[in-house]
């Protein structure tokens, strides 16, 4: 028996909260099905507000795939902002979906995406607001199955007690297998344990309760055991082998209010093989798979026709690397230019080629350019395998100023392994050099005063499945000292300096590399009021520290501590395809400042993905690197 929430109550609440359109649904292209005519209902739950979640491409893809099946109804739900949540609790309204206004606890499956460690408390808050027990062990056949996916799923252990099922890999590869498994179980009216057993047979699916972990006297993870017969010891990531043939939505739901990434998007490629040693996305989304020109142009036409958008974003981890990017842009500019449709490239390489592309698509309105040299000296850029030189950056910046840009943003990271103060000062030197160049070039046009260089600095957080997964994180005091050193050396009215809160970076490191013990802290922190931790106005570090103390968990041990190379790591049961041996080898090459080439254009470095997952780089523009190495 299902029921909608009280719409009369909702109508009374909405005028009292900010941006009520976040909760009304009814957008163009939203799909509302008759629940009596479907077998399975699936709530796609995003652990942040509507304005953020509506821009997420992965959910657009899953929403489309699921709703194309006549036996599935997929609906959306986002975290209500604090004012709305307060009103919902005051009036006894449970968390509900946008399409049918059904309580989330009445869905068959609820899927959360794990995009960012500081959104974990929002997951607990949404479960509580939905009236669903927080812990998997407290749920019965009457409750939805709680599933997660997304990049942070490669270390799901900090959330293990709260999740029934974790999926690891490209979502479109298995989402229907999961739904079909549930559908079959529902028709047979089996036990919840039988459902989880069936789910565990799907490649890429991890059921946390089927595994037991034990810790040694000194706190190290000692053993990880399978306690359910017939489930795999290791979970191998699923990949879409042919992205060109993969499903892609032709209709995006068009939001009623301004949201992040409010535009049509086509994903030109998935994966990156540049090999930056700190970058998790560059390791867990390998190999590179590109879509063909004709497919992309067809998707752009369909999306514009069905949404009314006047901007198209060409997305990927490194769009400038798409082997046919120049042809794609020329064709799209020629086809769409008369209709005043704008193109955007969210990620650019640090080279003059990227500037030429940006100039081609921003001839009339220049919105600023961002480059990411990441480190201030060539030595440190080689340590992290950035494969960018100072001359690359200066050539790109010079080209940008000569083509009329006044504003350049430079993105750096501090706290990287082997970093010294000389590397920090190198950031300041580089920024000042860029400013001088801009004033000289733009000064010839009388616009020297408009030149602005923004230096944005984040703190290094060691991430699982990267060559730097074993590294220590700088202490908060050391990161603040480095930020102060930079600030003192960037005092100039032509330079803006922004940096991340080191306390947030510290907490990220705890939950990025934590094990099941930090789950207790997560729940404790949520019970003390922590939520929306990625929003600076709501981040309560004091409450987090109280939660660690209350649970007797040392955050400095779980977070910034250097891991030993022979230590059993909590996430090692997840097989992303990249081998342990490769990660270690890359770590040591980093210490020697030895770079490793990109296998798209050079020899195979032997990461293990292609032979391990039986998939290759697929470049529509032709050649890739050499034979696979071990």
Structure description:
The radius of gyration is 25 Å and the shape is globular. The protein contains 21 helices and 19 strands. Helices cover 35% and strands 14% of the residues. The protein has helices spanning 7-13, 50-53, 57-67, 82-91, 120-130, 175-188, 192-200, 281-284, 293-307, 325-336, 352-361, 378-383, 390-402, 421-443, 476-489, 502-513, 517-527, 541-551, 555-558, 580-591, 609-613; strands at residues 40-46, 72-78, 109-113, 145-149, 165-167, 205-206, 211-215, 221-226, 235-236, 264-267, 269-270, 289-290, 311-315, 342-344, 369-374, 407-414, 452-459, 495-499, 574-575.
Query: What sort of overall outline do the alpha carbons produce when their principal axes are compared?
Result: globular
Radius of gyration: 25 Å
Which strand order do you get reading across the main beta sheet? 2-1-3-4-5-6
- What is the count of β-strands? 19
Q: pLDDT average, as an integer?
A: 94
Distance between the termini: 56 Å
Low-confidence stretches are none
Helix fraction, binned, reads 25-40%
- SSE class: alpha/beta
Strand content: 5-15%
**Number of helices in the DSSP assignment:** 21
Question: Biggest β-sheet, characterized?
Answer: 6 strands, mixed
Topology overview:
Layout (H helix, E strand, L loop, with lengths): L6 H7 L26 E7 L3 H4 L3 H11 L4 E7 L3 H10 L17 E5 L6 H11 L14 E5 L15 E3 L7 H14 L3 H9 L4 E2 L4 E5 L5 E6 L8 E2 L27 E4 L1 E2 L10 H4 L4 E2 L2 H15 L3 E5 L9 H12 L5 E3 L7 H10 L7 E6 L3 H6 L6 H13 L4 E8 L6 H23 L8 E8 L16 H14 L5 E5 L2 H12 L3 H11 L13 H11 L3 H4 L15 E2 L4 H12 L17 H5 L17
Parallel strand pairs: 1-2, 1-3, 3-4, 4-5, 9-19, 10-13, 13-14, 15-16, 16-17, 17-18
Antiparallel strand pairs: 5-6, 7-8, 11-12
Helix pairs in contact: 5-17, 6-7, 11-13, 13-14, 14-15, 17-18
């Amino acid at each position: 028996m299902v029921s909608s929430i009280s719409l009369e109550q909702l109508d009374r609440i909405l005028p009292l909260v900010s941006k009520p359109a976040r909760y009304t649904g009814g957008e163009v292209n939203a799909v509302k099905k008759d629940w009596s005519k479907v077998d399975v209902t699936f709530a796609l739950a995003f652990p942040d507000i509507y304005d953020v979640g509506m821009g997420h491409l992965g959910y657009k893809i899953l929403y489309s795939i699921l709703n194309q099946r006549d036996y599935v109804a997929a609906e959306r739900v986002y975290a209500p902002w604090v004012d709305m949540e307060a009103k919902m609790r005051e009036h006894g309204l449970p968390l509900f979906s946008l399409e049918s206004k059904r309580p989330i606890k009445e869905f068959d499956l609820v899927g959360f995406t794990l995009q960012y460690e500081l959104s974990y408390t929002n997951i607990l808050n949404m479960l509580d607001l939905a009236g669903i027990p927080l812990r998997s062990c407290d749920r019965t056949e009457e409750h939805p199955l709680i599933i997660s996916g997304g990049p942070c799923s490669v270390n799901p252990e900090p959330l293990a007690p709260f999740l029934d099922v974790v999926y690891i890999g490209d979502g479109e590869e298995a989402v229907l297998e999961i739904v079909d498994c549930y559908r079959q179980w529902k028709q047979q009216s089996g036990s919840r344990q039988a459902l989880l057993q069936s789910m565990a047979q799907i490649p890429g699916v991890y059921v946390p309760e089927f595994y037991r972990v034990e810790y040694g006297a000194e706190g190290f993870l000692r053993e990880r055991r399978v306690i359910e017969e017939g489930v795999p010891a290791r979970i191998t990531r699923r990949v879409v082998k042919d992205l060109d043939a993969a499903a892609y939505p032709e209709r995006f739901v068009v939001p009623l209010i301004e949201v992040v990434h409010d535009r049509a998007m086509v994903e030109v490629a998935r994966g990156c093989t540049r090999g930056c040693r700190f970058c998790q996305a560059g390791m867990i989304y390998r190999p590179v798979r590109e879509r063909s020109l004709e497919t992309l142009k067809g998707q752009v036409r369909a999306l514009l026709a069905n949404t009314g958008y006047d901007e198209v974003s060409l997305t990927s981890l490194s769009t400038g690397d798409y082997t046919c990017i120049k042809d794609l842009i020329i064709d799209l500019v020629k086809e769409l230019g008369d209709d005043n449709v704008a193109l955007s490239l969210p990620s650019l390489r640090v080279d003059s080629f990227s500037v030429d592309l940006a100039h081609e698509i921003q001839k009339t309105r220049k919105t600023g350019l961002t480059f990411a040299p990441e480190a201030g000296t060539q030595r440190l850029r080689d340590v992290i395998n950035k494969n960018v030189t100072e001359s690359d950056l200066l050539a790109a910046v010079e080209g940008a100023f000569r083509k009329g840009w006044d504003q350049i943003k430079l993105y750096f990271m501090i706290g990287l392994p082997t970093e010294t103060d000389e590397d920090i000062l190198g950031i300041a030197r580089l920024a000042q050099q860029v400013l001088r160049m801009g004033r000289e070039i733009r000064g010839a046009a009388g616009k020297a005063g408009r030149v602005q260089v923004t230096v944005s600095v984040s703190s290094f957080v060691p991430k699982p499945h990267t060559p730097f997964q074993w590294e220590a994180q700088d202490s908060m005091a050391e990161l603040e000292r480095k930020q102060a050193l930079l600030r003192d050396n960037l005092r100039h009215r032509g330079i803006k300096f922004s940096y991340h809160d080191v306390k947030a970076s510290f907490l990220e490191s705890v939950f990025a590399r934590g094990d099941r013990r930090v789950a207790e802290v997560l729940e404790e922190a949520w019970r003390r009021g922590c939520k929306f931790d990625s929003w600076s106005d709501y981040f309560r570090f004091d409450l987090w520290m109280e939660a660690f103390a209350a649970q007797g968990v040392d955050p400095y041990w779980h977070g910034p501590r250097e891991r030993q190379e022979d230590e059993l790591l909590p996430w090692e049961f997840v097989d992303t395809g990249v081998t342990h041996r490769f990660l270690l080898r890359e770590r040591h090459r980093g210490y020697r400042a030895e770079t490793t080439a990109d296998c798209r254009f050079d020899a195979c470095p032997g990461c293990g993905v292609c032979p391990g997952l039986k998939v290759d780089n697929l470049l529509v523009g032709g050649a890739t690197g050499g034979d696979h190495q071990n």
